[in-house]
Design goal:
about 375 residues; globular; mainly alpha; two-stranded antiparallel sheet
Length: about 375
């Protein structure tokens, strides 16, 4: 089997959401590729990234089967896992097509039907795939960073890798790490893509979600949720302009001057398919309906975040003590001209303590009781004298 054949099988399996098969095929391709190139060669980065995506999705699906995560709904990725509501879907990420535009879903329909006939009895633990995905993404990140000499294509791939690392950390509830990686990915994308890009909206939303799950970061979560909605609104306007034939010139991202003294750059080729001007009328209409729905969902999300109670600043024991003190004081009846009645619980506590000691002692003596009359008599005398 060649690397190209293994990759073709892997992409088809991934498009059909047969992630376990995709992992196996990508592993085969990786093994064959390492015979031609070193493990840290630039030619390995894209394969590492694709392999990591398959590992991540397989871990998520395994966790769902084991009952550790909610089962995705009929719309699949639109209702992904999270501790605070579904992840909104902002793009198809090219899962249904190969790099050359081949329809992978159509080609492999029969393969999908045949692969449903058997299920593995013994499955790897999801944590193993999560850890493996993290390590593989880290390998890809290291190669992209080493080869990042200002090339927009490489920078965008590096940004995607940071976002993928954030996804792993989010799934494994390492929220601080997820914030770090999502922020790094968003910073790179914001430097390359216009605000109307779906990728910008998705990055802001993911960052908002993990911030919402982090104590003390509610205001930041609201800010990024609003940014995600702003991005969607700009996308909607762009789609409407496209349908009306009023699209502005090709977007140019303003950046600081590079080594050649240039302060502007045209969009990356990877972003070309996301451009409205490259869409047909039917594609624009379809995406516009989708974006209108996302706009409403994000508006609800922002409102939900704004009505979320702020986290208490007191520790749990201190808060409990304060509430108990308030309850005791509010139960006292204040009579005009008289001091408020303060409940003295000292005698009650002492009586309860004696009662508990007596009961505890009785239980221990019953366990040690040999049932003789002498023992019972001694016990009765002790009770009378006490």
């Amino acid at each position: 089997m060649t690397v190209e054949t293994a990759l073709e099988h892997a992409r088809r399996a991934f498009a059909l959401k047969k992630y376990e098969q995709a992992v196996e095929h990508y592993a085969t391709a990786l093994e064959l590729q390492t015979k031609k190139h070193d493990e840290d060669a630039p030619e390995m980065a894209d394969l590492y990234f694709s392999y990591g995506k398959a590992l991540l999705e397989n871990a998520i699906s395994q966790a769902s089967v084991l009952g550790k995560e909610p089962e995705p709904g009929p719309q699949g990725e639109e209702e992904k896992r999270s501790g605070n509501g579904p992840i909104l879907e902002f793009g198809d990420e090219g899962e249904g097509e190969d790099e050359d535009g081949t329809d992978l879903l159509g080609q492999s329909a029969k393969e999908g039907e045949e692969s449903d006939e058997e299920e593995e009895g013994e499955e790897d633990e999801p944590e193993d795939d999560f850890n493996a995905a993290w390590e593989v993404f880290e390998l890809a990140r290291g190669i992209y960073e080493k080869g990042n000499d200002g090339d927009d294509e490489t920078k965008l791939k590096l940004a995607d890798t940071y976002i993928a690392l954030g996804d792993v950390s989010l799934e494994t509830e390492k929220f601080d790490q997820a914030i770090t990686d999502y922020s790094a990915g968003l910073a790179l994308k914001a430097d390359l893509l216009p605000m109307s890009s779906r990728q910008i909206a998705e990055a802001h939303y993911k960052l908002s979600m993990v911030l919402d799950l982090t104590s003390g970061r509610l205001s930041d979560a609201i800010e990024h949720a609003e940014k995600a909605r702003e991005s969607v609104l700009e996308r909607i306007q762009e789609l409407k302009d496209g349908l009306n034939g009023e699209l502005p010139p090709a977007p140019v991202v303003e950046r600081g001057e590079d080594k050649k003294g240039k302060g502007k750059a045209t969009p990356s080729p990877s972003f070309a398919r996301d451009l409205v001007r490259n869409m047909s009328k039917s594609q624009m209409e379809s995406e516009l309906r989708e974006m209108e729905g996302l706009k409403e969902d994000l508006a609800l999300k922002v409102d939900e975040l704004k009505t979320t109670p702020k986290a208490p600043t007191e520790s749990a024991p201190a808060l409990a003590a304060r509430v108990l003190d308030q309850e005791l004081n509010t139960n006292s009846i204040a009579v005009p001209g008289q001091a408020a009645v303060v409940h003295d619980l000292t005698s009650m506590v002492k009586k309860k303590k004696k009662l508990l000691e007596a009961e505890g002692g009785a239980k221990r003596k019953v366990d040690d009781d040999d049932g003789s009359p002498t023992t019972k008599k001694a016990k009765l005398e002790n009770d009378i004298t006490s």
